[in-house]
Amino acid sequence: MANVLTPQGEDFPRWYQDVVAKAQLAENGPAKGQQVIRPTGFALWERMVDEMDARIKETGTENASFPLLIPESYFRREADHVEGFAPELWTVTHAGGKELEEKLAVRPTSETIIGEYMAKWVKSYRDLPLLLNQWCNVMRYELRTRLFLRSSEFLWQEGHTVHESYEDAHEFTLRILHDVYADFMENVLALPVLRGIKTEAERFAGALNTFAVEALMRDGKALQMGTSHELGQNFARAFDIQFQGKDGQQAHGWTTSWGTSTRMVGGLIMGHGDDSGLRVPPRLAPVQAYVMVVKDSDEVQGAAKQVFDELKSSGLRVKLDHRADVAFGRRAVDAELKGYPVRIEIGPRDLKNGEATLVSRVKGVKETVPLGMLAEAVAAALEGDQQALFDEALERRERLTADAATVDEAVEAAQTGYARLPWDACGVEGEQKAAAAGVTVRVLQREDGSVPDSLDEPGLIAYLARSY
RNA sequence: CGGGACGUGGCGCAGCUUGGUAGCGCACCCGCUUUGGGAGCGGGGGGUCGCAGGUUCAAAUCCUGUCGUCCCGACCA
Length: 468
Known about the structure:
β15 (289-293), α9 and β16 (318-321) form a beta-alpha-beta unit. By secondary structure, the protein is α+β, with helices and mostly antiparallel strands. It has 14 helices and 23 strands. It has helices at residues 12-22, 39-58, 72-76, 79-85, 111-121, 166-187, 234-239, 263-272, 298-313, 328-338, 348-352, 374-399, 407-413, 427-436, and strands at 26-28, 35-37, 62-63, 69-71, 90-95, 98-106, 130-139, 153-163, 194-197, 209-216, 222-232, 242-244, 250-252, 254-261, 289-293, 318-321, 342-346, 355-360, 366-370, 401-403, 418-422, 440-445, 461-465. Mean pLDDT is 93; it is low at 1-11. The chain binds one RNA strand of 77 nucleotides through residues 21, 87-88, 109, 138, 140-144, 149-150, 154, 156, 223-227, 259-264, 294-296, 324-334, 336, 345, 347-350, 357, 438.
């Protein structure tokens, strides 16, 4: 693991790929841009799914499943949408050995096919809101791919809802942004996120407004961690999602869509990783405490098993590694690479004193703890590490954020992090100019940091950065 | 599509300039010794050098063609 995490982006991807490979998280699939997620990587995703799914259901949204293949004609119904996604589509042309009359697109996102069914299911205002989500894989042809951050095939969650009014839809879009996405990312992933609205150039194809949460990586580049779109009545018109209101009149519904993907695993690696590998925040960690033996003996193995049982029954996610045929250093380094928050080493020397060695991945310190107090000590270490990771990331973001007065200043400042620039001093022309220099407007916020209702509000602040 | 590299055991590479029977590290297998921070020693298996043609007594190496991959840019959760 050669490179240090300097704010010079060129070295970083190499370091990133080292972690992905050495921690056995994922590797490339046979087709361009596909990713094979290995069990250690998938465990991270599974934990994200658990935490996210609980939050999604809190909003009243239900899970469902829609087809992988979508007739091409569905895409053509919404003009902006087809234009936006046409270059990214993978298309199925044959089935059963024969050429299909109508080609089928492998879903890049499911607004169109879900819209088709929503139209059938929505008849009355009593059917609203209709709140659906699906966990699935999607495919988008990408010119440049990178494991977890941008792959042709990725796993995600996509929510799709229909509401009675603009206000209801707007409110729900922001509820997802705050209560589901930002809450999960800050409290579980320990990654502070900027919440805001996207410019027209960065908006989802076919949407009225796109809201997003953005995290800053260790190298000062931004990563879009999730988006929530209010689609207005664009898709409702295209797919004829109509209902009869209280007043007896037919009206088009107001729809939203929102998604987060396995990219969050990439954000986790690049947001928290260090020269020794991944660091996983305790609340997310599939393995919170890793119990290992130092040397092989009946006493040591017995004590390790006992510690494992005790920690497990205290409600922690624990892994017991009883191997003694692999060198100690190898096992310790592997545990570090995979980012297990707490490692407990049990050897004859510890046992002689009735102790165990507790190693914190985040703080990197070792301490000896009496066996009887392990459960409390581990719980305390986990809590401290969760907070320490968040604080560290927040401090870094603040340190890497600079105010700018002009587009040129912003481009300069964005070489190392976020540049804050009044949107009035930037505008669409400034945005294009910055983009030519590899810097994009990530989100717009109000002066007080809150999320604007639309791009029309005066006095907005733009956050510019380089991004993945 | 524009610019630049590279194809040699599973992975990462050297060898090519100056042709002479294919080598290193990691990984893997066996044995012994090890195990408190990526073990040591000994032994072993695995490659028609991307593909096709040409030059030559002889081609990984030189020539021609071809296929493919990666990087930078444009596009993007």
